[in-house]
Write a structure and sequence with these properties.
The complex is a heterodimer of chains A (259) and B (325). With 259 residues, chain A is mainly alpha-helical. Chain A contains eleven helices and no strands. In chain A, helix 3 (58-87) runs parallel beside helix 6 (136-161), helix 5 (101-125) packs antiparallel against helix 11 (233-256) and helix 6 (136-161) runs antiparallel to helix 9 (206-219). Chain A is elongated and about 60 Å long. A six-stranded mixed sheet of chain B has the order 6-7-8-3-9-10, with helices on both faces. The model of chain B is unreliable at 307-325 (pLDDT under 50). Classes of the chains: A mainly alpha (259), B alpha/beta (325). The structure holds adenosine-5'-triphosphate and magnesium ion. Residues 15, 18, 20, 38, 40-46, 85, 195, 321 of chain B line the site of adenosine-5'-triphosphate. Chain B: This is ABC-2 type transport system ATP-binding protein.
C-alpha cells in the first residue's frame, strides 16, 4: 500500500503538471506533425524506394517511426524534468517523506509514460488525415506498445537525470544518445540496404524493436508486411519489455542511492 | 538522557577534502527550541540534512525520536518535518495542491487533512489564496506556506533551516508567533538554524557553530554572560569626581575618556535608577547597551557573524567555492 501510495502521488503530480503546461502540449504535438508533413513529403518526393511493392507510400513507412519519435522525445523530456524538480526543490520534499525512494523513480516513469501515451494517442487519432487506416483494436495495441516503450525510455532518462546537477548536460544527452537512438531505429529509413556496420548498430538499438513492433501491428496483415517489417512481433515485444524492466531497475537503484 | 528527542554524537561530514561538519555532539529535549547559529558555510544545513536522512554522515551517530538516521531512515522520516533553506514548493501547483500532496506523502487521513489544512492556512493567513498557483505568491507568502506545510502532518521534530531569511521584520515576528503557538500546543521539538542574532533569541538553547564545530552551547542569556554584563555609558560634567564616587558607592571601576564614563554592571536597567538617585545632578545622559549574541560570536571567534563584514579569509573561501562549481 505504502509503495502504491508513493507511486500514485508522483504519477498524479506529473499528469496534473502536464495539463497545466499548454505550450508543452502544443509543442510536443507539433513536432511530429511537422516531421511527418515536411520531412515525410520531402523524402517521399526525393527518394524512389527500390523494389517497392505496388500501393506503397513513404508516409506509410514513416508514420510508425514518427509515432515512436513523438513518444521518445516526450518521455525524455519528462524524465529530464527531474533536474528542474531538484533545482526548484520539489524533489527534496519528496525525498525526506516517508515513502521509499524507488517509488519516486517508478512513479515518475509511469507519469512520464502516461503523458507520452496521451500524446501518442492524439497522434494516432490523426492517422486517417494522412491516409493511414487503423482499426480500433489496432489503436489499442499501438497504445499498449507505446506505453511499454515510453516507460522504458522515461526510466532510461531518469537513470541519467538522477546524476545530472544542471540542465547543461541535457544538450549532450540529446546529441549523443537520443538523436542516434532515433536515427538508428529505422524510423526514417529501413534497415535493409544500409552498410553492414550500420545495420549492426541498428540491430543493437532497442528502439528499432519498438518501431518494428508498431509496424508489425499496423501492417502485419497486409501485403506490405514483408517489405516494412523486420522481425517477428514476439521478438519486438520481448526486447521492448526487457528494456523497460532493465531501465526501471537502474532508475530505481539510482534513486535509492544516498549521498 | 533518554528523554532527549534528538541525540547527536560526534557527527562528521566530509565532501571530498572539505570537512563541513567536524564532530558535533548535542542533545535536544522534547518540546525544546534549539538553534544553530553560525555564519555562511558553517555546516548548519549539512547537519540538518544528515539528521533528516538526506545526507549520510561520514562518521558519528544521530538518533531522532529514538531512531537511527542511517539504519532506521523510514522511521526517522515519519517523525520529522522539514522547512528547507531553499524553496521547495511546486510552483505550478496551487497552495491547496501543494498541501494535499504533502498530506498524501505523509499518509495523513483525508478527514484529518481537511481540518488541519484549514487550521494551518488560517494561522499563516493564506486562507483566501488556497486555490492560487504558488508561482504568483510573494516570497513571504511562499515561506508561510512552507511553514504551514511543515506542521501539517503533526511531526515530532520540525527542522527549520533559516526559516525567515530574506523576510521583512513584521513577517518574521509573525512567523515566530505561529511557531511558538504551535510548539506549545503540540509539544513539537524545533531545531532551527539562523544567522540572524535576533532570531536566535527565540531559542531555549543555542549552539554557536563555526567552521563545522560547536564553539559554545547554552541559553541565550548565559551565552551573553560570556561577554560580561550590561554596559552603561554616562555623559557627565565631572568625569573624574564621578568615577571616584562610583568606585566608593557601588564598587565599580569606570573607564572612559573626556566627559564620558563607561561601567559594566550585571543588571543595567535596575542599576540606572540607583545611579540617577545618587548622582543625578551631575549626569547629562545615560545609555544602556545589553550584550547581544553578536558580541558573543565576536568574542568566541574573533569575527563578526554578519555577511556585511566578511573577513578576508571568508572572502577567499567564497571565491574558491564559486570557482569549484
Ligand atoms: N553537496 C556539497 N558538495 C560539496 N560541498 C558542500 C556540499 N554541501 C555543502 N558543502 C560545503 O560544506 C560547507 C558547509 O555548508 P552548509 O550548507 O552546511 O553551510 P551553512 O552553515 O548552512 O551555510 P549558510 O548559512 O550559507 O546556509 C560549505 O563550505 C559548503 O560549500
Ligand atoms: Mg545553510
Amino acid at each position: 500500500m505504502r509503495y502504491l501510495r508513493g507511486i500514485y502521488i508522483i504519477w498524479l503530480r506529473e499528469v496534473i503538471r502536464f495539463f497545466r503546461e499548454k505550450t508543452r502540449i502544443v509543442g510536443m504535438l507539433g513536432q511530429p506533425l511537422l516531421y511527418l508533413l515536411i520531412v515525410g513529403n520531402g523524402l517521399a518526393a526525393t527518394f524512389k524506394v527500390p523494389d517497392a511493392p505496388p500501393g506503397f507510400s513513404y508516409v506509410q513507412f514513416m508514420y510508425p517511426g514518427i509515432l515512436g519519435m513523438a513518444v521518445l522525445f516526450t518521455s525524455i523530456y519528462s524524465a529530464i524534468s527531474i533536474v528542474w524538480d531538484r533545482e526548484f526543490g520539489f524533489l527534496k520534499e519528496v525525498l525526506v517523506a516517508p515513502v521509499p525512494r524507488w517509488t519516486v523513480a517508478v512513479g515518475k516513469a509511469l507519469g512520464g509514460s502516461t503523458v507520452a501515451v496521451m500524446q501518442g494517442t492524439i497522434f494516432i487519432l490523426l492517422a486517417p488525415l494522412i491516409g493511414v487506416a487503423l482499426s480500433p483494436l489496432m489503436v489499442l495495441k499501438l497504445m499498449g506498445v507505446l506505453l511499454v516503450m515510453a516507460f522504458a525510455i522515461t526510466s532510461l532518462g531518469i537513470t541519467i537525470a538522477s546524476r545530472m546537477e544542471t540542465m547543461e548536460g541535457f544538450q549532450m544527452i540529446m546529441n549523443f544518445l537520443i538523436m542516434p537512438l532515433f536515427f538508428l531505429s529505422g524510423a526514417m529509413f529501413p534497415l535493409r540496404g544500409v552498410a553492414p556496420w550500420m545495420e549492426t548498430l541498428m540491430r543493437l538499438d532497442p528502439l528499432t524493436y519498438g518501431v518494428d513492433a508498431l509496424r508489425n501491428i499496423m501492417y502485419g496483415d497486409t501485403p506490405l508486411r514483408d517489405f516494412l517489417v523486420q522481425f517477428s512481433l514476439g521478438l519486438d515485444l520481448l526486447v521492448v519489455a526487457a528494456m523497460a524492466l532493465l531501465f526501471v531497475g537502474t532508475g530505481a537503484l539510482a534513486f535509492n542511492r544516498q549521498d | 538522557m533518554s528523554d532527549a528527542v534528538i541525540q547527536v554524537e560526534n557527527l562528521v561530514r566530509k565532501f571530498k577534502d572539505l570537512t563541513a561538519v567536524r564532530g558535533v555532539s548535542f542533545q535536544v529535549a522534547r518540546g525544546e527550541v534549539f538553534g544553530f547559529l553560525g555564519p555562511n558555510g558553517a555546516g548548519k544545513s549539512t547537519t540538518i540534512k544528515m539528521l533528516a536522512t538526506l545526507l549520510k554522515p561520514t562518521a558519528g551517530r544521530a538518533l531522532i525520536n529514538g531512531y537511527d538516521v542511517v539504519r532506521q531512515q523510514d522511521r526517522v522520516r515519519r517523525s520529522i518535518g522539514l522547512v528547507f533553506q531553499d524553496p521547495s514548493l511546486d510552483e505550478r501547483l496551487t497552495a491547496r495542491e501543494n498541501l494535499f500532496f504533502h498530506a498524501m506523502l505523509y499518509n495523513v487521513e483525508s478527514r484529518v487533512f481537511k481540518r488541519r489544512m484549514q487550521e494551518m492556512v488560517e494561522m499563516v493567513e493564506l486562507t483566501d489564496r488556497l486555490n492560487d498557483p504558488v508561482k504568483y505568491f510573494s516570497g513571504g507568502m511562499k515561506r508561510r506556506l512552507e511553514i504551514a506545510r511543515g506542521f501539517l502532518h503533526y511531526p515530532q521534530v520540525l527542522f527549520l533551516d533559516e526559516p525567515t531569511v530574506g523576510l521583512d521584520p513584521q513577517t518574521r515576528s509573525k512567523i515566530w508567533e505561529y511557531i511558538h503557538a504551535l510548539r506549545q500546543r503540540e509539544n513539537i521539538t524545533i531545531f532551527m538554524t539562523t544567522h540572524y542574532m535576533e532570531e536566535a533569541e527565540n531559542c531555549h538553547r543555542i549552539a554557536i557553530i563555526d567552521h563545522g564545530e560547536i564553539v559554545a552551547m547554552d541559553t541565550p542569556a548565559n551565552l551573553k554572560k560570556l561577554v560580561g554584563g550590561d554596559i552603561i555609558t554616562i555623559l557627565t560634567t565631572r568625569a573624574g569626581e564621578m568615577a571616584d564616587r562610583l568606585a566608593e558607592r557601588f564598587g565599580l571601576r569606570a573607564a572612559g575618556q573626556g566627559n564620558i564614563l563607561r561601567v559594566e554592571v550585571e543588571q543595567g536597567e535596575a542599576f540606572i535608577p540607583l545611579l540617577v538617585r545618587e548622582m543625578g545632578e551631575d549626569i547629562k545622559s545615560v545609555t544602556l547597551h545589553k550584550p547581544s549574541l553578536d558580541d558573543v560570536f565576536l568574542k568566541l571567534t574573533g569575527r563578526e557573524i554578519r555577511e556585511e563584514s566578511v573577513s578576508a579569509v571568508d572572502r577567499i573561501r567564497v571565491f574558491r567555492r564559486g570557482r569549484r562549481r
